[in-house]
Amino acid sequence: MRSKIKHEEIPDKDGRNATFLKRTKGLKKKANELSILCGVDIGLVIHKKEQSNAVLWPSPESFWSRLQEFMEFRNEERKRRMTTHEGLMKQMVQGEMENLEKLKKAIQLKESRQLVMKSMQTDSFNGFGIDQLNAMNSFADHMIKKLQQRDNELNEDEH
């Protein structure tokens, strides 16, 4: 039966080096299995404190190549997805301006319709200003277009 290992630095230098070599070998083996089974690129850096000889796995060339690909991917992905606050605000303002224009047109049409109804009730255009007459004209143009569209739809259905 195995004894549990305390997770603290091994005080004996030889024991620490032996554990380092065994665990490094096991870590490389697991990284290789993960790479093969899942089809992913893996790079490991294993560095001992106070030493300048880092272990780069699978090889220094492959490690640096994979690291470079990862760093380039991250920049490209970040640039592709990045939306600056200013750009986002411009998009929102533009959308709201378009909505505002649509609402203004809808209100103008309703007001124009009311003016036309009022003129039909009184059977007179007396008392209307030039702006109100222009609004009624716009409404009439809008209604003519809608009637033409409907006429075209009905003619298409017959054919």
Overview of the structural elements:
This protein has 4 helices and 2 strands. The chain is mostly helical and 159 residues long. The protein folds into 2 domains: 13-81, Transcription factor, MADS-box (SRF-like, 3-Layer(aba) Sandwich); 85-151, no CATH class. It has a two-stranded antiparallel sheet. Strand 1 and strand 2 (55-57) form a beta hairpin. The longest helix has 38 residues, at 85-122. It starts with 12 loop residues before the first helix and ends with a helix. The mean pLDDT is 85.
List the helices and strands and how they pair.
Layout: H1 13-38, E1 44-46, E2 55-57, H2 60-81, H3 85-122, H4 130-158
Antiparallel strand pairs: 1-2
From the spread of the alpha carbons, the general shape counts as rod-shaped
In the CATH scheme, what's the topology name of the largest domain? SRF-like
User: H/E series, N to C?
Assistant: HEEHHH
**CATH H level of the largest domain: which superfamily?**
Transcription factor, MADS-box
Quick recap:
It comes from Salvia splendens (Scarlet sage). The chain is mainly alpha-helical.
